[in-house]
Amino acid sequence: MHHDREHCVRAVRSKDARFDGWFFTAVLTTRIYCRPSCPVVPPKPENMTFYPSAAACQQAGFRACKRCRPDTSPGSPEWNARADLVARAMRLIADGVVDREGVPGLAARLGYSTRQVERQLLAELGAGPLALARAQRAQTARLLIETTALPMAEIAFAAGFASVRAFNDTVREVFALSPSELRARAPKSGAGTPGVVTLRLPFRAPLNPSNLFGHLAATAVPGVEEWRDGAYRRTLRLPYGHGIAALAPRPDHIACRLTLSDLRDLTVAISRCRRLLDLDADPVAVDGHLRTDPSLAPLVDRAPGRRVPRTVDEAEFAVRAVLGQQVSTAAARTHAARLVTAHGKPLDDPEGGLTHLFPSPEALAGVDPETLAMPRTRRTTFTTLVRELADGGLHLGVEADWAEARARLLALPGFGPWTVDVIAMRALGDPDAFLPTDLGIRRAAKELGLPATPAALTARAQMWRPWRSYAVQYLWATDSHPINFLPA
């Protein structure tokens, strides 16, 4: 979008927050870059230039605006709506892979050479993987500086910097303030609890929290997830340790409280919480497209801004999808809770009732199938899935190639279109997954006068592409029991 100068100028002049994260405005006279909705008086058009990422702005010598804080704008919705190399790379960078494994590790996960990855990112984003990761480290550092009382040296390493000097230099370059000056400008607060970070997760309006938090609360696995004091809480398995996230909806943001055993996991935890709640979506574009169908338009108008509830752990969700085949939501939660108690890793939660991390595929690979209270065919499905996940034969993480993952899932015993599409929608993040055999979808279709058979409904749904996953959310909302589990 940053190449469409006329469109960008109009967005800046109207201070349109819908485009925050889509592009960044750099001002040639002040050497400052902003989000489109920056509250200051817009510069003259001839003094504006546009970049596709904060990293590209920083690499070109611009510093972040102190008013609109462009480094904290929602992420571009492109990276969660696409499955190509650049989108997969951006999801991995957001998940902290470059900081942990370097650019060679990023390239290896994508199945390309380092040179190919760098060339593609530079061409589309104006910055390579190191610059993109550096911009992310700067944002993490700013959060820790402003929300904790940690010493600066600890913040430097928690944010992923190799040295305190690199931390100081980056903060000064990006924000035109030293770390101590940033802390002095932040609102005063108490010392806080060690390992606890409180922050606000931005999103593009509108956001309808009912389907997000209602679904997560209704399907919560005891010990791993809970709804408490107006917040969805769950445990997180992270690269350096574990954590607990508490997420509560607010009118203009999601209140997020992260309790981490290792603060180096902060960036990853934020990324996974945003992905769980689909916060980088562009609801105006999605809803505008779905409204073109007269059958869906009233549903969208009644409660716009529905998101797709996703997951913080793709392997966990795949396992839970299998546990949910052919049973009720309550039975699926019961099956999952038994696995958690028997094979999950215990942890302490002083603030609530969370007790375990969901078992890893490696832990579940050792489960005796005879101990599973499910039909023999589904036991085979379960054991085959966890073995594939544990052995690395099946990849469902943010780096996954959606088409390849679908094909591998369909090749497993007991995996039919419903299970594959629900995993594609909730775990892979495919915005165009569709569930024509789902009981809730079929009930909604009947109520709305849409075709009744799965084949005919799929044909009608072609006009909803590429946002069929969002159409599913609107259709489910018409049913009094929106969470239904059908055969694989």
TrEMBL record:
Its cofactor is Zn(2+). This is DNA-3-methyladenine glycosylase II. Its EC number is 3.2.2.21. It holds the Pfam family Ada_Zn_binding. SMART domains: AlkA_N, ENDO3c, HTH_ARAC. Keywords: Activator, DNA damage, DNA repair, DNA-binding, Metal-binding, Methyltransferase, Transcription, Transcription regulation, Transferase, Zinc. It catalyses: Hydrolysis of alkylated DNA, releasing 3-methyladenine, 3-methylguanine, 7-methylguanine and 7-methyladenine. InterPro entries: Ada-like_dom_sf, Ada_DNA_repair_Zn-bd, AlkA_N, AlkA_N_sf, Alkylbase_DNA_Glycosylase/TA, DNA_glycosylase, HhH-GPD_domain, HhH_base_excis_C. Residues 87-185 form the HTH araC/xylS-type domain. Gene3D superfamilies: DNA Methylphosphotriester Repair Domain, DNA-3-methyladenine glycosylase AlkA, N-terminal domain, Helix-hairpin-Helix base-excision DNA repair enzymes (C-terminal), Homeodomain-like, Hypothetical protein, domain 2. It is an enzyme of class 3 (hydrolase). PROSITE patterns: HTH_ARAC_FAMILY_1, HTH_ARAC_FAMILY_2.
